[in-house]
Here is the input.
Amino acid sequence: MAKVTIDGIEVEVPNGASVLQACEAAGVEIPRFCYHERLSVAGNCRMCLVEVEKAPKPVASCAFPVADGMKVFTDTEMVRRARRGVMEFLLINHPLDCPICDQGGECDLQDQAMAYGGDASRYKEEKRVVKDKYMGPLVKTIMTRCIQCTRCIRFATEVAGTAELGATSRGEHMEVGTYVEKALTSELSGNLIDICPVGALTSRPYAFVSRPWELQKADGIDVLDATGTNIRIDTRGGEVLRILPRINEDVNEEWLADRGRFSFDGLKRKRLDRPWVRQGGKLVPATWQQAFEAIAAAFTAPGAKLGALAGDLADVESTLALKELMASLGSNNLDCRTDGAAIDTSRRDFYSFNTSIAGIEEADALLIIGSNPRTEAPVLNARIRKRVVAGGFPVGVVGPQGMDLTYGHDWLGEGGATLRALASGAHRFCEVLRTAKKPMLILGRNALARADGATLLAVAWQIAAFNGMLKPDWHGFNLLHRFGGQHGALDLGFVSGLPMAKMLTGGVDALWVLGADGQDLSAVPASTFVVVQGHHGDAAAARADVILPGAAYTEKDAAWVNTEGRVQLGFQAVHPPGEAREDWKVLRAASAVLGKPLPYDTLEALRARLVSAYPVFAQGDALPRFACTDTTGPAGDISGLRDDALALPAGNYWQQDPISRASETMAECARTYAAPAALAAE
Amino acid sequence: MTEHHEPTSFAFDAESNAAIEQIVARYPAGKQASAVIPLLYIVQKQMKRMTDSGWVPRVGMDAVAARLGMAPIRVYEVATFYFMFNTKPIGRFHLQVCGTTPCWLRGSDAVLKACKDAGGLKGYGDTSADGNFTLSEVECLGGCVNAPILAVDDDYYEDLDYDSTVKLIEALKRGERPAPGSVIGRQTSAPVGGPTTLLDVAGE
Here is the structure.
């Protein structure tokens, strides 16, 4: 540790820390543009100049290591003049277009020019102009505004792992761009917008939409992948205008995947905004009362067999309400594995990401089975990449050959035979895993959605057990879910009675489908009465007998459980459209008409019930980590594993759920990236 | 900036490959990216052999990136940073006029004018209509003693004035390649007329 004095405040910081970090530890603000705590140090903006005792000239604090006994001054005449000078140079070529710039109001350059700049320009000459670059449908560029801090270049190279941005030419002619015109291929490209300190990289869908001070902000949880990214939902007049990440070191650091950031325009399209009831083979608009009465007739018919499905985007509270409603109606036919994944719910660590996302950084070997984390959970993949870049982290992959994970990996094989070899120690990669101290594996949820899925799960567990991943102080078995509602429903034990396949093929007389708007119900026989409760008019609504309009994740206070089993609360940002209501309230109202009123009238009462019945929800977003004292695995016979190749989720990254399928922005991404040849021809 | 035609493919020929082997072997394993500048020169020389125009097309940069296991953008950055790499096609002869202070004081303006007049060039960055010459301004070539200097491709012509530059360019047009060095017969960088010091050996 080194003792440093900043403006008379004494702080202790680790050796090797920079002066800027010491200043932050002392609570002294240092202006900066190029420095970012999650990127390498570039030291090229010169805005962070400070005075160090006995140094002959100002030093760039971001790139200057501390020394014991160092005295730093951040508010002397020398520092003020130096910063004013730097700011004057930065502004020489920066256009004065703040009134039409989307960064206005949240621009580092604007703020710091106010705080540290001069009061007038002395520059009378021509300003330089830079041609705008095309970077795809998400990131808009106005490159004349670029101050060449190179944050975007470093982010693309270091964090996203797609080295496509660079600084070409030099001096006065230096430009930041891709050189070859192309759309960025990263699933994390939206973070470039956040990381750009000026208005050079802005959001294309958000262009000229709003000013930051007009926005209402609500904290939410992204449910479009299972990372559980913490988000801030910015709204104005009851409309979601943009979504930004919040910082959560344990989950998403400060990144957000593009689908979670840009697909919200799908929340305004194809919405279910009123109840519908099927009459004479046709869906007709109805009142809530009519809808509930139609449901009551089917669900309380004597001898009727009932069932319920909870889908990928169902929140914890409404799933619990549905479970208890079904219980009060005397049915235990529940299934939340709407993708058909053979998940064993007998123990929580059979279906959780037990290592935890932050725990990836502690691991020292990784085996990925049947998953492409880059498209299934881009932010989680960035964490894996971070660990790979740190070194000493061999990655083996069982799945399709030639995946670009943004880091190098060892392709071991594509299916069953390789897995059997890994489970029995016959495979060369076992040596790598067994010599590692904290090896881990990631099993893709989609890999379990096949006929021998249960066997596959058992084999994966055996691989973990055999290769030293399950220890009292380390749990290296991880299931990577795909959506925000999947883990929570499993925690509620929403798997009992008849399995989904039976319920969809006439096994029940009345079926309640919650939050599974994308579910294909076309195989359900006409004799089954189907209630679809959800927010989008996707595949499921087409087969519904009654449609109950619910709320999307931005429209309700709800708890979500991410793939790690972390319980996080999202808050309501806007009201659901039209007559749509929060889902637990819909279920509560329906239960009254069905004659079995649920015993809670407020969300607080429902949550109290949740916590008392399922203590796992009492832990909040804290996460107990790393323990596997019982290595007994899920049931399954290894020899029954088929040799088929493991399949990844179908479709493109941008359109995976009802919300992103309804999104114009995501559709444009799909067009852009699915047909790069057509783009090149333009 | 005028549009130019980018080739659609580039592959190292046998001569280039032999040179690359030699260069890459100089760097320790895993540090091959250090060879990016020499390899870009190899691309430029191969283009000169193939098309009589020494430049580095984008596909050539891609070939370097693939050969060295780098992201293509990292090669683009280097190739566009150094003015020694021509990212557009150039003429048969690359006339590089040094305009830095010593050359300028010794009459580089006249050399420049001679290049324009004799070569049929409008100014820096221009390529003559007959495809013979491209004119560039370069920074100090390190031969200030014999200023002013005109570099033609890799050869230095020194102690030029207007007339000698015109003569040089006319010779190039005829397909001759005058011997590089001082055009007034100066011995290396010794004083004009021959050495003036150390003529007497002590004790003789």
Notes: The two ends of chain A are 58 Å apart (CA to CA). Chain A has 21 helices and 28 strands.
